[in-house]
Amino acid sequence: MSLATDHPVSDWKHNACILCECNCGIEVQLGGPQGRNLVRVRGDDAHPASRGYACEKASRVDYYQNGPHRLTRPLRRRADGGFDEIDWDTAIREVAGKLAALRDTHGGSSILYYGGGGQGNHLPGLYSRATRAVLGMRYQSSALAQEKTGEFFVAGCMLGGITRSDFEHCEVGLLIGKNPWLSHGIPRARVTLREIARDPARTLIVIDPRLTETAEIADLHLRVQPGGDAHLLTAMVAVVVQEDLVARDWLAAHADGVAEVLPHFSAVSVAECCAKAGVDEALVRQAARCIARAGSVASFEDLGVQMNRHSTLVSYLHKLLVLLTGHFGKKGAAYRPSSLVPLFGGVNGGAAGLKRTPVTGAPIIGGLMPCNSIPDEILSDHAQRFRGLIVESGNPAHSLADGPRMRQALAALDLLVVIDVAMTESARLAHYVLPVASQFEKAEATFFNFEFPNNYFHVRRALLPQLDGLFSEAELHARLVEALGALPQEAVAALRAAWEAGRADFRRAFVGLMRADPQLEVLAPVLLYRAIGPLLPEGSAEAAALWGVCQTASQKQMASIARAGFDGPAPEAADALFDALLASPSAVVFSIDDWAESFQRVATANGRIQLAIPELFEELDALAAEPAPTGSAEFPLVLSAGERRSFTANTIIRNPAWRNKDRNGALRMHPDDAARAGVVNGGAALLSTGRGSAKVLVELSDRMRPGHVSLPNGQGLDYGEEGGPPQVTGVSTNELTSNEDRDWFAGTPWHKHVPARVMALE
Ligand SMILES: Nc1nc2c(c(=O)[nH]1)N[C@H]1C(S)=C(S)[C@@H](COP(=O)(O)OP(=O)(O)OC[C@H]3O[C@@H](n4cnc5c(=O)[nH]c(N)nc54)[C@H](O)[C@@H]3O)O[C@H]1N2
Ligand SMILES: Nc1nc2c(c(=O)[nH]1)N[C@H]1C(S)=C(S)[C@@H](COP(=O)(O)OP(=O)(O)OC[C@H]3O[C@@H](n4cnc5c(=O)[nH]c(N)nc54)[C@H](O)[C@@H]3O)O[C@H]1N2
Ligand code: SF4
Ligand SMILES: [Mo]
């Protein structure tokens, strides 16, 4: 983008794009009236994962950084619903006091934590651990618990943790309900996809009802009926089993449960499943054989199936397809990545081992309770209901299912505290809004580090000074913990003195403090921030807690970290890694694995892959009797509520002007469906679901499968020009989704499968 520049344009500075999980390295020039605009943005050649790549969205991050949406003063809600600006001392004292009162009266587990980071800012989640621990908070959730928890349960049972895949080197690339051309999710997505598609020796397989940008270049497009993936994947696994394409020797060496699993597929009617899935049987057989016979398969499932019917089961069928054909732990296939900060807690003991929420007993997977259960856990007279909620870097009033019910739940809380850079839909409902410095005004990092065999971590230093009156979440949590009387100043002083004396002294002092008072361990992030934050290079104070992270990671993954050049005794290697992270303007390779490492990382009880997940067999076996998903007379269409488009980025950018085209986020619809509804291209229509109605503008598209309509994600945000009233642009999809439409097991929503109807409007 270009902006009028009264200020001399700065040198190129390194940072990362924050608009999707890839966090591509970028270089930025600052300029504009106060030198605070990100006037030019380009891909960073020095970033070892993105290697100069950036998509069209990165050039528009200034719309996130600057604008009237930015908050600069803490706000306290009045009885009449308006807000008063208050000073920081008052804000911290009152918020800490009210949180402590909830803890003292109802217990810390009456306060829920939601968020902790969006696509590129995961340090807040680390610092908040201290606040949560002091308050005795036990429950948390985040957007991951409305998409990834089903997959995580399956991966946890089968492999002891998440897997990712090596698309760069795969022979076959398989995408299930995922459109990386627009949503990315793998580094340099378009380059990698094009390479697979162009190479006659490689095959790109896409499972999607839409002719997406990715499907368009695919070798095989399985244009599944919306919601038909469970039948489709069952058919694919059945082909592998019935045609004896199972990798028996490989499985004998690495996996248990083959004999238990295969009978569930040996009698399946492939023809019937294909018919229900709406895909030609010959094509399904071709795809299944191609996967089974390939030297390597990389695969990725995403929202098209994770926010859809049978989502946990589909994740299981996907893993079975890949594992029964042996595509794990080799170049071009699936692997278990290393991690500096694990995103999920473990899953031990299957469903029976899962902790449960207090009111409805919803499963807590990887430490996260289902987002869809949040209202149920608030709107109840159960003694153990949630009464307080801290939202940090998330926007549940907009992003979670059933907006009206979510708002009702948020309004029923005794205390809602929202920590954000912007006045969001959630912030408007808060008792206190605590504004923070933006991701370009503090040190930040992403914990979405999934690459293999080389894995990367990027500490981004602040690009800009913090807006007057603002500071980071690290500072905020330090102040909250201090106000709660839990941060021992002697410990801070001792650690600071030790850091100045040298790293060996510091390690000794740190370990000594933790031994003397094990309670201090939970405070480590804020303790480190207070002690050494001010001593770190300019713009990197918030990286302080990573010192502890490096120490833990170097013990757990010593060999991988050593291969990346951080060798020697674990504590010293950790310090060397920490220093390298802080010194490098771009990402650093923190671990290097060999392919065999993936097998060593299979963290099941006996270290072998476990193919059987008995909890899911009943649902699997019942598929045979389940009819194909069809519309009703009332709702003949299926709405995908929240498709990724060129200019959508969750709710990270609020100003609709960042979209040159499709400003209102059109409803895409097949011409035949439109003709039936009497709707024309560009015309207005009323879109209705069981939950609500919205006025939409229609775009006719023969890329849609008849019967399937779609709306983009992240629209319907309110935004006011300087001084003007806020205006809402586009449809907020969750006004149309319902809370109960969710996976029976993981509780993940069916946002891609909302029964709907469309009526022309004058
Ligand atoms: N541009 C952009 N990129 C983003 C984001 C963004 O907001 N904008 N958000 C990021 C985030 S948080 C995430 S989680 C990812 C999500 O990334 P994706 O999951 O790739 O995104 P979606 O477009 O929501 O859904 C993917 C596909 O599912 C298909 N689909 C719909 N119904 C079905 C079905 O029944 N079966 C199958 N097989 N497919 C179906 C849709 O047609 C769509 O092409 O994107 C990330 N990247
Ligand atoms: N119907 C439907 N709903 C969906 C989806 C869908 O496809 N359909 N997609 C879902 C998916 S996959 C996801 S991941 C979620 C996302 O849902 P959420 O994680 O709840 O929301 P985000 O839109 O990512 O919100 C990020 C928030 O962080 C704030 N923020 C940005 N920078 C900072 C910072 O430095 N500090 C703090 N404290 N805050 C900051 C932004 O202003 C914004 O309010 O939406 C989900 N909702
Ligand atoms: S792929 Fe994602 S992180 Fe990379 S430039 Fe595009 S939006 Fe930003
Ligand atoms: Mo997401």
From TrEMBL:
It comes from the Bacteria. SUPFAM superfamilies: ADC-like, Formate dehydrogenase/DMSO reductase, domains 1-3. Keywords: 4Fe-4S, Iron, Iron-sulfur, Metal-binding, Oxidoreductase. InterPro entries: Asp_de-COase-like_dom_sf, MoPterin_dinucl-bd_dom, Mopterin_OxRdtase, Mopterin_OxRdtase_4Fe-4S_dom, Prok_molybdopt-oxidoreductase. It comes from Variovorax rhizosphaerae. The keyword Metal-binding applies. The keyword Acetylation does not apply. This is Molybdopterin-dependent oxidoreductase. Transmembrane segments: none annotated. SMART domains: Molybdop_Fe4S4. Residues 10-66 form the 4Fe-4S Mo/W bis-MGD-type domain. The lineage of its organism: Bacteria, Pseudomonadati, Pseudomonadota, Betaproteobacteria, Burkholderiales.
